[in-house]
Every structure is written in C-alpha cells, then in structure tokens.
C-alpha cells in the first residue's frame, strides 16, 4: 500500500515552526533529525508500505531529507488536511495509510501493529470497516508519559487520544473525507455543527453516556461509510507535536532512548 504524509503548513506560517526557527513545522529538528525525516524512516521500515507520498507546498524541501529505500514522491497541499486527503484519493490507489509529519516518535512497530489490527477491524454491524483509525487508551498514554497534556476523547467506556494513523480501505472513504471537510468548514459555527451531529448524540457525549462504538457508528451513518478504531499498546503513539510543550517533551523522550 501507499502511505500519505501530511506535511503542509498553515496559511501565513505555522506558529510552532516560527517558535523553532524553521519555515515548516515538518522541518523542526528532534534528536538531530527533522520530524519529517523520522516519519519517513519509520515508513521505510514497514514491509507493507510500498511507496510514500508527501503532501507539502514546497517539494524542494524533500531534497534536504536523508534518502530512504522506498520511492518518495510529493503532491501539493490543498486548503486543509481534509482537502489534501481528498486530492490524494483521486490520485492514489487504496488502501492508503495516512499519517502526519509531526508524528516525531513514530515507530515501524506501531505502524505494523496498527495495520495488523486494522486488517481485522470491523464496524459496529460486524462488516469490514471502510476506514480505521488508531487510538491509545488514556491509562496507557499516562503510564508511558505521565507528564503529557493531551486532548482526551471521553466516552462511556474510557478516554482515548488519537495517534495520527489512519487506514483508508475502500471507495466509501470519500464520504468520510467529504464529511470531514464539512466539519472543518463549520468548526466556527457550533450550532450548525451540533445540528449536523444530532443534539441527542452530542448530549449523550457531554454527559458521558456515549460509547466509542456508538460514536463511530453515528459518524459512519453521517458519512455513508463504516468506521472502526484499534488501540495501540504503546501510549507514546499518541504523542505528536502541536505546541512548544509537546516539542520539549518529544525531544526529552528521544534523548532518553538508548542509542
């Protein structure tokens, strides 16, 4: 399968890139290597991945990355992450693995674990999932990195954090991406967003009554696709770099690693 790495930058520049003194967030150095280089190296070590596509607005920046053994191509970024993935679906065959350039701790073992579990993942109705996302349980994240600050998805059966790994498996994922684009467009119009999700489901989530399975089933109904989630065992898989505190944390975690 191919792998898509989202390495775009925000219009007007990324605040974290400015904080780190580079033009692109993907170029921020962690443990002596740009974050993007670490992600490419992890993908290179996964046998299931045949080639990598990097979505970036300045493709010449790839020439500064250490070479890997698999073919690496670039594609332009679109107006946002969802639009970029939509454009990739028009050009890439499925299945397609999607991750982000700020996943600086990414390891080949986590990707392999995710792909193995995703291959068996089923939706709420028991049918094969069209799209699978990786999550980590709160207790596993805090056991691995006690001092991290994450945004938790709190459901009746537990709290989770996303791991920036997605597997798009069938043509139905186009509906998921379209729904994602609609959500992005309405993120500043909360009433419209709540109406789209449905007030009953939103209320159940706020009260802690909504399970993860029910949430995925509802999102799948809205998107016309079947969704599933798999849990990664290593809580560090949920650590990406969104703010200066994340960058300091990731640099310290890598500094502690043997070798």
3D architecture notes:
It is a single chain. It contains ten helices and ten strands. Strands 1, 4, 5, 6, 7, 8, 9 and 10 form an eight-stranded mixed sheet that branches. A two-stranded antiparallel sheet has the order 2-3. It is an alpha/beta fold and 259 residues long. It has a single domain (2-256), classed as Spore Coat Polysaccharide Biosynthesis Protein SpsA, Chain A, CATH 3.90.550. The two termini are 30 Å apart. Helix 6 crosses helix 9 (212-223). It has helices at 15-20, 35-44, 81-91, 108-118, 138-144, 173-185, 190-197, 199-206, 212-223, 244-256, and strands at residues 2-6, 29-30, 33-34, 51-55, 72-75, 96-100, 131-137, 153-155, 158-168, 227-231. Helix content is 38%, strand content 19%. The chain is globular.
Structure summary:
The chain is an alpha/beta fold and 259 residues long.
Mean pLDDT over the residues: 90
Per DSSP E runs of 2 or more residues, the count of β-strands stands at 10
Sheet with most strands? 8 strands, mixed
Q: Mind telling me the CATH superfamily name?
A: Spore Coat Polysaccharide Biosynthesis Protein SpsA, Chain A
* Uncertain stretches: none
The name CATH uses for the topology is: Spore Coat Polysaccharide Biosynthesis Protein SpsA, Chain A
How much of the residues is beta strand, in percent? 15-25%
Spell the H/E element sequence: EHEEHEEHEHEHEEHHHHEH
In DSSP terms, counting alpha (H) and pi (I) runs of 4 or more, how many helices? 10
Instruction: Measure the end-to-end span.
Output: 30 Å
Rg over CA atoms, rounded to whole Å, is 18 Å
Helix content estimate = 25-40%
Q: In CATH's first tier, which class applies?
A: Alpha Beta
Form type: globular
Number of domains: 1
CATH architecture group name: Alpha-Beta Complex
Structural class: alpha/beta
């Amino acid at each position: 399968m191919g792998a898509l790495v989202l390495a775009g930058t925000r219009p007007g520049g990324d605040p974290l890139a400015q904080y780190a003194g580079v033009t692109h967030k993907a170029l921020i150095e962690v443990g002596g290597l740009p974050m993007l280089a670490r992600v490419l190296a992890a993908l290179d070590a996964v046998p299931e991945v045949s080639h990598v596509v990097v979505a970036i607005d300045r493709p010449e920046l790839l020439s500064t990355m250490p070479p890997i053994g698999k073919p690496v191509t670039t594609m332009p970024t679109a107006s946002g992450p969802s639009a970029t993935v939509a454009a990739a679906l028009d050009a890439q065959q499925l299945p397609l693995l999607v991750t982000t350039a700020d996943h600086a701790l990414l390891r080949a073992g986590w990707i392999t674990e995710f792909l193995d579990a995703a291959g068996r993942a089923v939706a709420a109705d028991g049918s094969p999932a069209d799209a699978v996302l990786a999550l980590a349980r709160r207790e596993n994240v805090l056991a691995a990195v006690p001092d991290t600050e994450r945004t938790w998805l709190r459901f009746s059966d537990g709290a989770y954090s996303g791991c920036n790994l997605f597997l798009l498996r069938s043509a139905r994922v186009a509906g998921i991406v379209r729904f994602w684009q609609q959500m992005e467009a309405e993120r500043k119009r909360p009433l419209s967003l709540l109406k789209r999700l449905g007030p009953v489901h939103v209320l159940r989530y706020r009260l802690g009554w909504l399970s993860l399975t029910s949430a995925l089933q509802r999102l799948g109904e809205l998107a016309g696709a079947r969704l599933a989630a798999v849990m990664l065992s290593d809580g560090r898989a949920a650590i990406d770099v969104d703010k200066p505190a994340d960058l300091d944390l990731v640099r310290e975690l890598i500094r502690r690693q043997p070798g």
